[in-house]
Design brief:
It is globular, with a radius of gyration of 16 Å. It contains 7 helices and no strands. The longest helix is centred in the C-terminal third of the chain and has 22 residues, at about 110-130. It is an all-alpha fold. It has a single domain, classed as Serine Threonine Protein Phosphatase 5, Tetratricopeptide repeat (Alpha Horseshoe), CATH 1.25.40.10. Helix content is about 75%, strand content about 0%. Helix 1 packs antiparallel against helix 2. This is Pentatricopeptide repeat-containing protein.
Length: about 130
């Protein structure tokens, strides 16, 4: 039906991406994402969070690196969570640097997520070492 629609804009694409991702059909979500002629931050966030919510943390972070629009607070929260779930300390350092580079270092929501995720990851690491 969407293929025949005359009203195919970034909003309708993004809504479908979110729907497919929530139904765990990440392949269809990515196919639609790739078809969007002009992506905005919301469409990028939808695809990045779709990957992250489906456990595809590596893909979420790779897509973030490809992002060609300025990330917003939602982007950074999703990326921090994906980074923490991936367990990569090096990626964590890179994301922390990006947070500072994009001026989010003083954003209370992001700082809280970073602090909370660091606590969870450190606690998990400590338990596995015991």
């Amino acid at each position: 039906m969407f293929d025949r629609s005359s009203h195919r804009d970034v909003v309708s694409y993004t809504a479908l991406i979110t729907g497919f991702a929530s139904r765990r059909d990440i392949g269809s979500a990515r196919k639609l994402f790739d078809e969007i002629p002009l992506k905005d931050v919301v469409s990028w966030n939808a695809m990045i969070s779709g990957y992250a919510e489906n456990g595809n943390f590596k893909e979420a972070l790779e897509l973030f690196r490809e992002m060609n629009v300025r990330p917003d607070e939602s982007t950074m929260v999703t990326v921090v969570c994906a980074c923490a779930q991936s367990g990569s300390i090096e990626l964590g350092r890179q994301v922390h640097s990006l947070i500072d580079d994009h001026g989010f270092g003083s954003n209370l929501k992001i700082v809280n997520v970073v602090s909370w995720r660091q606590h969870v990851v450190c606690s998990r690491d400590c338990r596995t070492r015991m």
